[in-house]
Amino acid sequence: MIDQKKVILMTRMAYYEEHEGKRNVAIGRFFRGDYISWQVIKSLLASTVAFLVGLGLYILYNLETMMQDIYKIDLLLLARNILMAYGIFVVVYCVISYSIFSYRYAKARKSLKNYNRNLKKLSAMYEKKDSAAEGGSAER
Amino acid sequence: MRSLLEFREKVRLLYSKNEAYILPVLKFLLAFLTLNMVNGRMGYMERIDQLNIVLIASLVCSFMPSGCIVLFGALFSLLHLYTLSPEVALAVLAIYLIIFLVFFRFGSKDSLVLLFTCIACSMNIPYVVPILVGLVASPVAAIPVGCGLVVYQVLSYVSDNAQAISTMGEDEAIAKFRLVVDVILENKNTLILIAAFAVTIIVVYLIRRMSVDYAWSIAMAAGVIVNLVVLLVGDLKYETNLSLAGALVGSILALVMAKILEFFRFCVDYNRTEKVQFEDDEYYYYVKAIPKMAVTAQSKRVKRINAKRSESPYEDEDYEDEVNGGDSYEEDEGRSVVTERTGLGRRRGAGLFPGRGRRSVTIGSESGAADGYEELEDLDEPQVYEDEEYYEDEEE
Q1: How far does the CA of residue B103 sit from the closest CA of chain A (Å)?
Q2: B252: three-class secondary structure by DSSP
Q3: Tens digits of residue pLDDT in B49-61
Q4: Which of A127, B181, B371, B372 holds its CA 20 to 30 A away from the CA of B33?
Q5: CB contact B322 to A (< 8 Å)
């Protein structure tokens, strides 16, 4: 006979595996430090490229005035300012990334714990069924 | 209301049964709508401004991840802009890159919110966006909404001034470039819209998460008011020539659409709210459970069971119930039992701890008329249609 509770549990677990479980399982394969540092490195690269694109936009936007004042500009100071802006942007972005991915990791672990609990529940259901079947055959 | 609930159940059932087909069709329609809008507003490159190209691209999007629609939309817009002016296309590409690299690192669903914002803006219903997004998403969604507003403003500005841009000479390449960047930096209208929408999304989100009754309705109303107030303050400060009538009509439309969304996402019966209190080793729990308003689709099953049991497994009651879905089969003679199971109707009285369902059993002779039937009530048979679902607010 079909065990309805088991079917419901299995359906829910299959749904979980199909949807958010996929991402969570991928996250759960990493240690916390590995996952977060990998994501922060990716954020560092993304923010560097974004900063370069933004810098390009800024230079093109102010190209006319920059070309006019090219001899008046203190290039060393400009470079220092750009580097400082880059540093602030990257640090702020990486800190935000760190907090978001730490939260995401904690959430995924919690969700996976729940999933594992369901797995254990399912396993207990099978064991119960097996022991009942063995008991039935022994009585005969 | 009952017929509406039945309609909702039918829609849900239809979707859950045919999800595998409906989802690609929806993606196809969304991609088709997006690309047609891009082509309709810009359409400078004739090669891609063709129905067959749009159809092929939409078809590709229908079985790809939803982010693909945004990618194709961006690609189409860049190609049109490149035909109009490479400098403008370069500036827009830089904006797309920054949005993609900085803001879309954290979520893949953000791209759909951006797309929804652009579509709503081009359909002249931008005020719908913060209310609906606040109701279904998290406050972080304010970022893609802001990006969507920027993208829409840039593209609409370029398409409105396409004539002027095309007449600009090659020596004005930097001026063309600056034109696009100025839309973001100088256009106060966009900045006010971004601020108003961000504040509205946060307000709507915070209120709808509260455990007060009618939280969704209060959230919508508060969101509309906050949105209007921020827009008016911005208008007073920066003189953006905000159309108050347009904003009011848009807000009313936003309320109507939010109500429709509420009907599908958060249709609960506050009259049957239950509050329970219990404790375990570590916490006290104050639980407020609000039952969802729902009906089961009307279904009537008539089952006839011969009193004279047959040896054949095909005439076993359970087997017949499963195989024939409760349909009757012909009997040669003897008494028959007719059970009728109808839809539960509104699940009143089911309560937090589901009670016992009802099944009426009618017994009569096969040859006799229905007049001779005797009605029995089997109250011990629990209903097993589905789990009762609740919205719960739990405070520890």
Answers
A1: 10
A2: helix
A3: 889 999 999 999 9
A4: B181
A5: no
Q: In this predicted structure, what is the pLDDT of residue B312?
A: 47
pLDDT tens per residue across span A68-118: 888 888 888 989 999 999 999 999 999 999 999 999 899 898 988 888 888
Per-residue burial over B189-227, b if 16 or more Cβ lie within 10 Å, else e, is bbbbbbbbbbbbbbbbbebbeeeeeebbbebbbbbbebb
Of B105, B106, B174, the CB nearest to A60: B174
**Which stretch, A5-14, B189-198, B329-338, has highest mean pLDDT?**
B189-198
- CB proximity A79 to B under 8 Å: no
For B2-38, letters b (16+ CB in 10 Å) and e give: eeebbebbeeeeeeeeeeeeeeeeebbebbbbbbebb
Closest to B317 measured CA to CA, from B294, B300, B347, B339: B339
Structure tokens at B223: 């969101």
Assess contact for B151 and B119: CB atoms under 8 A: no
**Chain A interface, best mutation among B23, B87, B105, by max A CB count within 10 A:** B105
Average pLDDT, stretch A33-47? Answer: 93
Q: At which residue do the structure tokens 């039992």 appear?
A: B337
Q: 10 Å Cβ neighbour count for B44?
A: 18
A49 close to B (CB below 8 A): yes
A95-105 as b/e, with b when 16 or more CB fall inside 10 Å? eebeebbeebb
Residue B245, pLDDT score: 86
> For position B387, what pLDDT does the model report?
39
d(CA B70, CA B243): 30
Query: Among all residues of chain B, which has the CA nearest to that of A93?
Result: B102
Flag whether pLDDT at B218 surpasses 80. Answer: yes
Nearest CA in chain B to A99: B106
**Domain positions in chain B:** 2-265, 301-387
